[in-house]
């Protein structure tokens, strides 16, 4: 009976570890341990006990897996594996979008792209139409990704 419990718990533990560690070996070992636990149960206690053990292992395995998925990010061991920074948030994009309507100076010839100084900061700039000469006064009309779209001041 002790061997069955050890194989079952070690098998479930190995499968849970496989969810964190790459490679696939622990998952295969865990499944092997669970199958061995069921086989030992069939041999020692008969078919009825083997079927009951199989059902219990399947139910227990799904319960533990559900618990693991629910509390994975809170466990001390796995807390370090979770990315805490916001993904996809581009604070610089918000800053660039606030530049629409602001004026600045072309630092390079914009044919159609180059650099511009707007509110004391350097930005990648794209001329809205044609080209813009260096040192020309410009105004921001739109934002496209990492660049600002500009036109000359009239």
Describe this structure in words.
It contains 4 helices and 5 strands, in the order H-H-H-H-E-E-E-E-E. By secondary structure, it is an alpha+beta fold. The protein folds into 2 domains: 2-81, no CATH class; 91-152, Nucleic acid-binding proteins (OB fold (Dihydrolipoamide Acetyltransferase, E2P), Beta Barrel). A 5-stranded mixed barrel has the order 1-2-3-5-4. Strand 4 (137-144) and strand 5 form a beta hairpin. Helix 2 runs antiparallel to helix 3 (47-71). The radius of gyration is 31 Å and the shape is rod-shaped. It starts with a helix and ends with a strand.
Summarize the structure.
This protein has 154 residues and is of the alpha+beta class.
Key terms:
154 residues; alpha+beta
Number of strands: 5
Count of the separate structural domains: 2
Largest sheet: 5 strands, mixed, barrel
Radius of gyration: 31 Å
Going across the biggest sheet, name each strand in turn: 1-2-3-5-4
**Beginning-to-end CA distance, first to last residue:** 89 Å
Total helices: the number is: 4
pLDDT below 50 for ≥5 consecutive residues: which ranges?
none
Compressed to H and E, one letter per element, the order equals HHHHEEEEE
Overall pLDDT score: 86
- The percentage of residues in β strands lies in 15-25%
Q: Could you say which structural class the secondary elements and strand pairing correspond to?
A: alpha+beta
**Estimated helix fraction:** 40-55%
Identify the overall geometry.
rod-shaped
